[in-house]
Amino acid sequence: MPKPLPTSVRTHVTALRMLLVMTVILGLAYPLLVTGISQVAFSDKANGSIVSSQGKEIGSSLLGQNYNLPKTAPSGSTTGADPDEAPAPDPKWFQPRPSAYAYDPKSSGASNLGPNSEDLLKAVEERRAAVAAFDGVDPAGVPVDALTASGSGLDPHISVAYAKEQVARVAKARNLPADKLNALVTKYTEGRSLGFLGAESVNVVLLNRAVSEQN
Questions:
Q1: What pLDDT, on a 0 to 100 scale, did the predictor assign at position 65?
Q2: Principal place where this protein is found (predicted)?
Q3: Count of CB atoms situated within 10 Å of the CB of 133
Q4: What is the spatial distance between Cα 54 and Cα 195, in angstroms, rounded to a whole number?
Q5: Residue 79 pLDDT exceeds 80
Q6: In this structure, are strands 201-203 and 157-159 parallel, antiparallel, or unpaired?
Q7: Residues 18-49: tens digit of each pLDDT
Q8: Which contiguous run of DSSP H or E holds residue 190?
Q9: Rounded distance, CA 185 to CA 198, Å?
Q10: Helices 204-212 and 160-174 sit at what angle, rounded to 10 degrees?
Q11: Smaller CB count within 10 Å for the chain: N or C?
């Protein structure tokens, strides 16, 4: 009759068996089950809410992005564009709100500057002047979200007021009727979260996709 294994050995064998069983259940079966359910029931969200236009992926409806003019080297320059030069916004696109990290998905976050920060107040006034000049409006009427960055730095939404402020500029740059762009702003206006939280907003990524398909 074989000699029984020591208690300590049996305990370790039992623990190893449990580890293998739970690894299969929680490490393989459960993730595959959840992935399968999400692909069937929430395919778009499970795959990153990808936005496509004319068969090409152009971003995600969950992540804001820049709509800037490409940097070009000064006339006669042999060194190319200045990497430290701030990019200029493209007038043909609705612009998002500012981002502390220039909409870099690898470095999202806020500036962490408080309301008493002189740097923040200076940045707000500089943005106010720049946005007013860019959109051709009174500086006093520039919406707050055009002046301050979001907490994530990747917010794809702007206020309805900021979207409407940009209509005339985009219409002129694209030679499109302002009424058509106003209709698109209305179409892509999203309601308040849960019906009572926050305010109505416009997803810039979706709005700009619709604008690009007008030309």
A1: 92
A2: membrane
A3: 10
A4: 33
A5: no
A6: antiparallel
A7: 999 999 999 999 999 898 888 888 777 777 78
A8: strand 189-190
A9: 18
A10: 20
A11: N
Question: Contact, 214 vs 94, CB < 8 A?
Answer: no
Strands 189-190 and 157-159: unpaired
Tokens of 210: 């619709």
Task: Indicate the burial class of 104 (C-beta count within 10 angstroms; 0-12, 13-18, 19 or more).
Answer: middle
Residues 200, 191 contacting (CB under 8 angstroms): yes
Residue 195 φ/ψ, nearest 5 degrees: 85, -10
Q: Which amino acid is at 151?
A: G
Token couple for 170: 């985009």
Contact 39, 46 (CB under 8 A): yes
Amino acid at 59: G
Decide if pLDDT at 55 tops 90: no
What kind and span of H or E run contains 51?
Answer: strand 50-53
Query: Which DSSP symbol is given to 156?
Result: -
Tokens of 102: 């220039």
Other C-beta atoms lying within 10 Å of the C-beta of residue 170: 24
- Amino acid identity of residue 202, one-letter, is V
What is the length of the chain?
215
